[in-house]
UniProtKB/TrEMBL annotation:
<feature type="transmembrane region" description="Helical">
    <location>
        <begin position="305"/>
        <end position="326"/>
    </location>
</feature>
<feature type="transmembrane region" description="Helical">
    <location>
        <begin position="188"/>
        <end position="208"/>
    </location>
</feature>
<keyword id="KW-0812">Transmembrane</keyword>
<dbReference type="InterPro" id="IPR013057">
    <property type="entry name" value="AA_transpt_TM"/>
</dbReference>
<feature type="transmembrane region" description="Helical">
    <location>
        <begin position="347"/>
        <end position="366"/>
    </location>
</feature>
<dbReference type="GO" id="GO:0015179">
    <property type="term" value="F:L-amino acid transmembrane transporter activity"/>
</dbReference>
<feature type="transmembrane region" description="Helical">
    <location>
        <begin position="266"/>
        <end position="290"/>
    </location>
</feature>
<dbReference type="Pfam" id="PF01490">
    <property type="entry name" value="Aa_trans"/>
</dbReference>
<feature type="domain" description="Amino acid transporter transmembrane">
    <location>
        <begin position="40"/>
        <end position="404"/>
    </location>
</feature>
<protein>
    <submittedName>
        <fullName>AVT2 protein</fullName>
    </submittedName>
</protein>
<keyword id="KW-1133">Transmembrane helix</keyword>
<feature type="transmembrane region" description="Helical">
    <location>
        <begin position="70"/>
        <end position="103"/>
    </location>
</feature>
<feature type="transmembrane region" description="Helical">
    <location>
        <begin position="417"/>
        <end position="442"/>
    </location>
</feature>
<dbReference type="GO" id="GO:0016020">
    <property type="term" value="C:membrane"/>
</dbReference>
<keyword id="KW-0472">Membrane</keyword>
<feature type="transmembrane region" description="Helical">
    <location>
        <begin position="228"/>
        <end position="245"/>
    </location>
</feature>
<feature type="transmembrane region" description="Helical">
    <location>
        <begin position="378"/>
        <end position="396"/>
    </location>
</feature>
Length: 468
């Protein structure tokens, strides 16, 4: 997930890769930079928030259906969709209470300037995983595309070769650029690429999916597997856009709590619909052979090539935006221990070369983007989507803005005790969710090759695609 464009802009950057804005906190944790606030209309904010949530991360959702089963997938995606929407709203509400417009500022004003490093560390971890996921996707898309376009040029068929070439020729130079405004607008292509992939999968779902009793769909309805918690982690990563809640509230034109609530409900409702459909479409097509990146299941055809290249170029344009936030948050933490000038050319050059090399090597080592998103969802989603919002609500519930009354919470007639119970429940859910998701990642995994052989998803006579 890439650094998110302010809601006032026409687009925001891709999800699979969307990363939060770096927490620009000073030594004492409070933000000193004065930023121009540009108001955004409701429709523009809605478009940006939808794009913030819905990104390349949806490519992993067919695996989520495979791991959990149809009914558990529907239950978990509904539960996490509702909870993530609620906690996203709570962060906006807390921002209204304390007068914050960024996540770092919200942390400082809710707790203490001493906790600003927590915001920067969380951003650093999330950005690093987003950069790693981007590199995995770049390796996926370009190795598949170039193998079909240039079959005789064997050197361009491997992930490692492609990633090293693209890293040296594109990722490093683009990450060194100081003004990334053009890349932000270029990421508009990511919206079109995501829509194209969804349409491609929908078309194939209608014409090729197997609903017979011997097919994968009807044989994966209510399984009981520990892999269910991997699905929870993937969904937690997919719905996570919480770093940007304070900014969306602060820049919403004619903002009010009720208007922000409507914005969140519409955006998360659309995201839930897209995620639910995409996961089912992908699993219906490829069954238990579904890859962590569902586009890897396709073989070379002209329409699939368009999907590979458009998504690949979109991720390349997204990477520098994510990396810039990663570099800034890393520099702010390093400055506490070393004499580091974030604006110096030497720091930018050395950190960029080392950082890109590290993520490129990670992209070579990891070939499954779902694994990266599972780790991100297991570690960061519980903190950002449940633990932090609940803790901030507990801290800000008694605060006032310039002596004025608190904005209303939904169902504000609930007693204070019930709100506290809600917060503690969110805290407990986040801890249990994260612990179980991490535990399952280290347990023995289900061998889906047996199920693939038992319930194949192939259809003879269909146009060229293959489960690999």
């Amino acid at each position: 997930m890439a650094e998110v464009e302010p809601p006032s802009c026409d687009v925001v950057d891709s999800e699979a890769l969307e990363a939060p804005q770096a927490a620009h906190a000073s030594e004492d944790g409070a933000s000193k930079a004065v930023k121009q606030e540009i108001e955004s209309s409701f429709s523009t904010s809605l478009l940006n928030l939808c794009k913030n949530i819905i990104g390349a991360g949806l490519l992993t959702l067919p695996v989520a259906v495979r791991d959990a089963g149809m009914i558990p997938y529907l239950v978990s995606i509904t539960l996490l969709g509702v909870l993530n929407a609620f906690t996203f709203f709570l962060l906006g509400w807390c921002s209204a209470v304390v007068g914050a417009s960024t996540f770092a500022e919200l942390c400082v004003k809710s707790f203490s300037p001493r906790v600003a490093w927590v915001a920067n560390l969380a951003v650093l971890l999330d950005n690093s995983m987003c950069c790693l996921a981007n590199c995995v996707l770049i390796g996926d898309f370009f190795s598949k595309a170039l193998s079909g376009l240039l079959p005789s040029c064997v050197i361009l068929h491997g992930r490692a070769e492609n990633l090293c070439i693209i890293g040296a020729l594109l990722l490093v130079p683009l990450s060194l650029v100081t003004n990334l405004a053009l890349l932000r607008y270029a990421s508009l292509a990511g919206l079109g690429a995501t829509a194209y992939v969804f349409a491609l999968l929908l078309k194939d779902f209608v014409t090729l999916s197997d609903w017979s009793t011997s097919g994968p769909l009807l044989n994966n309805v209510t399984p009981l597997r520990p892999d269910f918690f991997k699905t929870m982690a993937l969904l937690g990563s997919a719905f996570m856009a919480h770093y940007n809640a304070p900014k969306y509230y602060a820049q919403l034109q004619d903002r009010s709590v009720q208007k922000f609530k409507m914005l969140v409900c519409l955006a998360y409702g659309l995201a839930w619909l897209v995620f639910t459909a995409f996961g089912i479409f992908g699993f219906a097509l490829f069954g238990f052979a579904a890859e962590g990146n569902v586009l890897k299941n396709y073989s070379f055809t002209p329409e699939v090539l368009v999907a590979w290249l458009s998504m690949g170029l979109s991720v390349v344009c997204t990477y520098p935006l994510v990396f810039g936030s990663f570099r800034d948050s890393s520099g702010l933490l390093l400055r506490k221990f070393f004499d580091v000038s974030l604006a110096s050319i030497q720091f930018r050059l050395v950190f960029t070369c080392l950082g890109v090399a590290f993520t490129v090597l990670g992209g070579v080592a990891f070939s499954d983007v779902a694994l990266v998103n599972e780790l991100r969802g297991a570690i960061l989603s519980p903190c950002l989507a449940f633990i932090y919002p609940a803790a901030m609500l507990l801290r800000t519930r008694s605060k006032r803005i310039d002596g004025t009354a608190l904005p209303s919470l939904p169902s504000h007639t609930l007693s204070l005790c019930l709100w506290r119970l809600c917060c503690y429940s969110l805290l407990a859910f986040g801890i249990v969710f994260g612990a179980m998701a991490l535990l399952v990642m280290f347990m023995s995994k289900t061998d889906f090759s047996v199920l693939t052989a038992a319930y194949p998803s192939h259809r003879t006579g269909s146009w060229c695609y293959a489960c690999t």
